[in-house]
């Protein structure tokens, strides 16, 4: 019976290490991917540079800037 309880204790310890390692790996990979992606809102502290008012009503979304600073203009293939 002692061998069995020692084996169970060993498996239990190995399982805890595997779960802890998996959790840490998931966090590290998630933070790495979140840092690498452009234009993704940060989940960390708010920096106050979202273009909104002091009451916190800003959405943080900025319209895209166009080359030349002009309005968007589309043309068709017609002659």
Approximate shape: rod-shaped
| Helix count from the secondary structure assignment | 1
**SS-based class:** mainly alpha
> What gyration radius follows from the Cα positions, in whole Å?
26 Å
Helical content band:
40-55%
Largest sheet: none
Helix/strand order, N-terminal first: H
> Regions with pLDDT < 50 over 5+ consecutive residues?
none
Distance between the termini: 91 Å
Total E-strand runs: 0
Written account of the structure:
With 79 residues, this protein is an all-alpha fold. It is built from 1 helix and no strands. 44% of the residues lie in helices and 0% in strands. It has a domain of 38 residues.
What is this entry, summarized?
The protein is mainly alpha-helical and 79 residues long. It contains one helix and no strands. The longest helix has 35 residues.
